[in-house]
Write a structure and sequence with these properties.
DNA-binding, alpha/beta, five-stranded parallel beta sheet, homodimer, 8 strands, three-stranded antiparallel beta sheet
Chain lengths: 220, 220
DNA sequence: AAACTATTCAAGAGATTACTTGAATATAAA
DNA sequence: TTTATATTCAAGTAATCTCTTGAATAGTTT
């Protein structure tokens, strides 16, 4: 039956997108690329893969239309091809965070393990802020920050973190927070900041919990 | 570095979701399930797979949290676990339709091949409607239908098609339309209706083109 | 209990995937 | 032209995936 045949061919094509996203290294590359155009070399470096391997993954992403590239001189720069790819990535992430026990486990483990993340309690944070010892970093999107945030916090959405590192003082301690304990924005911010040499920590819970706990807030 | 390790483990988990969606048969099953709870046997039948194979695919979907199931007597009924799974599927579909040439090719080929789909032109449709010969079927979501539709068209979103087949007369010719030439809702409706024995056809283009072409419209 | 049914489990064959290694291209600099 | 650099290509290996087949399990009916 040709209708069925069409359907199967169609789903086989859809599956190519799934396949492109079925490898952790490729997803990591995709996320790096989502932060802005990157060359193969840069991507290989941040992902820890060999250049050849990186190149092969990138070509798979390209063949399914998830990324596009342009050549400039010796280098080839890869970028996300379209906004809908980010939406897809976000949807995948959400499903994973909500339905995979392993993800929740993983987040909980890393967020609570002392030597890797040390969350900072609410009261403790206020003290440190008063003493002028810390920079509080809100990594949520601009709109959410504008709707209310921790007093004195500066806003750098996670996606723009690398470009705005100059707003943070190297010596200063940085405390990052986001939406809540299940939101991994803050974790990622801390991980990235630590890679850059910052003394970064994570706020226990997120803004909703801060607010619900009766702590002071501030609006734009 | 434990931060990097966390990240890689996290992406490896995300990749499990991609892997679950990396097979055409599984995606087809997922779509059937999205239309309502189905037993393994039913799913095996509509997909054309063996029962054992179907069961194995279903378990993969279940292990990644995309579907859930309940047992009732001898049968096991599978359902979509959550709305966010549908969002993910929709996002994947959109990316595939917009970025894979093969999908566009496939749709164009099947949509234009005479013996399988025969699109109906705008002017021709109006004539047939006037003569009371056809039922015009709008397969878009309710909101879109409410915002404007082809005069006299009835609205059955694709996802509810099977449940509302009684609104269509068997003998009557059915002309389906959706958002546009790249939207495959209408094609699927036609394919499914034909499987059920209806004399179904597809409207050339979709509602935006109909409107843009200066044809009459109607609102809720 | 015995027979039946829907589903799952287990093992195996063939295809596909991920990564490595070393060579091949293509562009830029000397 | 020669040399250097960034990327891609190609071949090979180990691991994984899909599907088939036949048996095992769990629940229903007789």
């Amino acid at each position: 039956m040709s209708g069925t045949n069409f359907k199967q061919q169609l789903f086989a094509q859809f599956a190519r997108i799934g396949k492109a996203m079925s490898n952790g290294n490729r997803l990591e590359l995709l996320e790096f690329i989502a932060q802005g155009e990157r060359s193969v070399e840069e991507l290989a470096k941040v992902s820890g893969l060999t250049v050849a391997n990186t190149s092969q993954h990138l070509q798979q992403l390209r063949q399914t239309g998830l990324v596009a590239c342009r050549k400039e001189g010796l280098k080839v720069y890869y970028r996300i091809s379209d906004n809908d790819v980010l939406k897809l990535f976000g949807a995948l992430r959400e499903v994973a965070e909500r339905h995979l026990d392993e993800v929740q486990e993983l987040v909980r483990h890393y967020l609570t393990s002392k030597d890797s993340l040390e969350p900072v309690a609410h009261a403790e944070l206020l003290e440190r802020v008063r003493d002028g010892l810390v920079t509080v970093l809100d990594v949520r999107p601009n709109e959410e920050y504008a709707a209310g945030h921790v007093p004195g916090a500066i806003n750098i959405p996670l996606s723009e973190l690398e470009e705005h590192l100059d707003e943070l003082e190297q010596g200063h301690e940085v405390i990052a927070y986001c939406r809540g304990p299940h939101c991994i924005l803050a974790f990622e911010a801390v991980a990235r900041l630590r890679e850059k040499g910052f003394n970064a920590h994570r706020l226990e819970d997120g803004y909703p919990e801060w607010q619900a706990g009766g702590m002071p807030t501030e609006k734009e």
